[in-house]
Amino acid sequence: MFLLSLKYLRSLIPVLIFFVATEGAQLYSQTRCLRGRIVDDQTGLALADVHVSLLSKAAGALSDSLGIFELCGIKQGDIMELHHVAYYAQNILVSAALPDYPEFRMKLRTVEGAEVIVRGRSGLSASALPGQATISSADIVRMPSFMGEADVIKTMQTMAGVQSVSEGVGEV
């Protein structure tokens, strides 16, 4: 009986070594998760919706309303990019000197666009009279039908400015 258990133990040793080796590789891997905060450089207020991504792989995160983000799979030597529409983008080299909970400060950038000129077109609304709607025979053909007939009332209820309170149900 003792020999049988020894033989059984010898067959389990390679399996045990395999599990210890694979778990050890995961525990001592060089990647880590980085959790940090992103704030405005001038005011110190938290910045929401900042894109935090690694340039070496398709991994990224988005900062929350408190400016906090968490990005996993980072290893030493990776380049992390911070990007926001209203701020200058930053590239940060991940090194051992980076603290466990870093605070990144982003500088505001001003964006100027071309001038917008709005021109009205006269004559388009000159023929419209308030309180009057015209439905042509071509419009009647395209109307939704009710029991084979064109439903003019239903079409008028979908027009702009027309409001139906009771639609014929009770409380006349």
What's the short version?
The radius of gyration is 34 Å and the shape is elongated. The chain has helices at 2-27, 137-141, 152-157, and strands at 32-40, 51-54, 60-62, 68-74, 79-84, 87-93, 103-106, 145-146, 149-150.
Largest sheet: 4 strands, antiparallel
What is the general shape?
elongated
Rg of Cα set: 34 Å
Report the end-to-end length measured between terminal Cα atoms: 97 Å
What is the name of the CATH superfamily of the domain at 32-106?
Carboxypeptidase-like, regulatory domain
Helix fraction bin: 10-25%
Unreliable residue runs: 24-28
Mean pLDDT: 79
Order of helices and strands: HEEEEEEEHEEH
Strand order of the largest sheet: 3-2-5-6
Class of the domain at 32-106, according to the CATH hierarchy? Mainly Beta
Global structural class: alpha+beta
User: Remind me, CATH topology of the domain at 32-106?
Assistant: Immunoglobulin-like
Counting DSSP E segments of at least 2 residues, the number of strands comes to 9
Which CATH architecture of the domain at 32-106 would you pick? Answer: Sandwich
Strand content: 25-35%
Treating each run of at least 4 consecutive H or I residues as one helix, how many helices? Answer: 3
What does this structure look like?
This protein is an alpha+beta fold. Among the domains are: 32-106, Carboxypeptidase-like, regulatory domain (Immunoglobulin-like, Sandwich); 131-163, no CATH class. The chain has three helices and nine strands. It has a four-stranded antiparallel β-sheet, with no helix packed on it. Strand 8 (145-146) and strand 9 (149-150) form a beta hairpin. The longest helix is centred in the first third of the chain and has 26 residues, at 2-27.
